[in-house]
């Protein structure tokens, strides 16, 4: 792991300095774009993994492959963009990423 990114802001809740609308709060693209700039990432070849529809909306906004960790279900939650891959857990998702990257390298 090279970095961890988070947004401390909320548009209506929390302490005054953090109670703002911002682009870094998902589904905004700010965190992904910051990571891409700081880590020299190729976003179209990247994956954004999360467990919420807002994570997948961010992936869609920046052009990354969204991977939704669904727990026990493989169904598409309401609000998840088309093209999102859905896996039960991180282990299943990681196995798919390795296979997907292998296809892209050929």
Write up what this structure looks like.
The protein has helices at residues 30-39, 53-62, 90-105; strands spanning 47-50, 65-69, 85-87. The chain has 106 residues and is α/β, with parallel strands linked by helices. The chain has one domain (16-105): HAD superfamily/HAD-like (Rossmann fold, 3-Layer(aba) Sandwich), CATH 3.40.50.1000. A 3-stranded parallel β-sheet has the order 1-2-3, with helices on both faces. The radius of gyration is 15 Å and the shape is globular.
Q: In terms of topology, how is this protein built?
A:
Elements (H helix, E strand, L loop, with lengths): L29 H10 L7 E4 L2 H10 L2 E5 L15 E3 L2 H16 L1
Parallel strand pairs: 1-2, 2-3
Q: How many helices?
A: 3
What name goes with the CATH superfamily? HAD superfamily/HAD-like
Number of domains: 1
Oligomeric status: single chain
CATH topology name:
Rossmann fold
The secondary-structure class comes to alpha/beta
Radius of gyration: 15 Å
Helix-residue proportion: 25-40%
Average pLDDT: 90
User: What strand order characterises the main sheet?
Assistant: 1-2-3
Low-confidence stretches: none
Gross morphology? globular
CATH architecture identity: 3-Layer(aba) Sandwich
Order of helices and strands: HEHEEH
- Let me know the largest β-sheet: 3 strands, parallel
Strand count? 3
N-to-C CA distance: 26 Å
**Strand percentage:** 5-15%
**What is the CATH level 1 assignment?**
Alpha Beta
